[in-house]
Amino acid sequence: MSDVRQRIDDLVKGNRVMLFMKGTAQFPQCGFSGRAIQVLQACGVNDFKTFNVLEDEEVRQGIKDYSQWPTIPQLYVGGEFVGGSDIMMEMYQSGELQQVLGGA
Predict the structure, then answer these.
(1) How many structural domains are present in the chain?
(2) For residue 28, is the peptide bond before it cis, meaning its omega torsion is within 30 degrees of 0?
């Protein structure tokens, strides 16, 4: 396993709710990342961790390979890939995301 893949794996498996995003929770640097933060907050999650991919080009590319998903943000819950902001929004609207977040 490459160093970057191991770093990503440690982040994903070491945090209950992990969001790879552009910017920070306090200062999202794209609309999709901002929406992902809003969805997590609307679900009442306050123990999530974020990683700013704009600060690490290796992770920015590596997370796409890790998940086989081409876009950022990417949400992981309980070590499992959930999806990007559009999927998060759909799951939130159906109530599924709240169940995933509550059960992790």
Answers:
(1) 1
(2) no
Q: Kindly list the distances between the CA atom of residue 15 and the CA atoms of 5, 18, 43, in Å, as whole numbers in the listed order.
A: 16, 6, 17
What is the arrangement of strands in the sheet containing 74-77, beginning at the earlier edge strand? 49-52, 17-21, 74-77, 80-83
Cα–Cα distance, 39 to 11 (Å, whole number)? 21
CATH number at residue 50: 3.40.30.10
Q: Report whether 77 contacts 101 (CB < 8 A).
A: yes
Give the residue numbers spanning the domain of 69: 3-103
Q: How many CB atoms lie within 10 A of CB 99?
A: 12
pLDDT, one tens digit for every residue, the chain (104 residues): 689 999 999 999 999 999 999 999 999 999 999 999 999 999 999 899 999 999 999 999 999 999 999 999 999 999 999 999 999 999 999 999 999 998 65
Backbone angles phi, psi at 84, to 5 degrees: -95, -165
